[in-house]
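Review form for a predicted model. The reviewer records the input and the model, then writes brief findings.
Reviewer: anonymous (R2)
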Amino acid sequence: MSNRSSRPWYLAPYYIWILLFVIAPIALVVYFSFLDLAGDFTLENYANFFSSTYFRMTLSSFWYAFLITLISVLIAYPTAYWLTKTKHKQLWLLLIIIPSWINLLLKAYAFIGIFGLYGPANQLIQFFGAGPLQILFTDFSFVFVAVYIFIPFMVLPIFNSLDKINPALIDASRDLGASQWTTFRRVIFPLAINGVKSGVQAVFIPALSLFVITRLIAGNKVITLGTAIEQQFLVTQNWGMGSTIAVFLILFMIIIMLLTGPKEKGGALNGKAK
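Model under review:
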């Protein structure tokens, strides 16, 4: 009984951290979302969010986040699968993760030089006989750089899931006459689905709130929810509208986490065993 009664004291720092750095900031955001420029209570911010302008911006944010996530999965899954088959897989995994340690601004400025009119990308295009192209400040450059930034966060969870699969299950599938595609579709992919879901969370959610890349790489031609929040707080000084957008962004993130969360407590392997 003494151990049980004293156990909550060990959790006190955790609860204090959650209160100060999770609940309190969200409560402040919700509070400011009900204020206008004069500091008076209003529901106009929420009414404005459902206008055609913010509706198109929300759809645009989801489209770009979906596109970035889809491309990341298509690149990360075969990469992670190949890593599990290599001899020095931990070393190769480290080489993929290392770019994520570099500051985001440094990577963005590096791509500004790469995609510039006189950068290496245009020099390569001119080498093949084409003229210089406006690669920077386009949708392509925005998606390319975003995928490059998020790839490590997609590869790592997928690699962990694939690496934990018992090879005996794959051998058993092939011994029973299943083709490589059938083995992948019926054995490998279902057992590694939680890794894909974790990768989707790690990529889709932050992709919704990108704003640094939209400014430096896309030249504000791509407007996301994160860009709108930044403009409302720093440009127009409308903290109420910025907080309202942030409230809906938090709701979208919660919904995505619920949709991509694990459905089985025992994990995919235990679920299949049952």
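Findings: The mean pLDDT is 89.
Further findings: Residues 209 and 226 are 4 Å apart (CA to CA).
Recommendation: see findings above.
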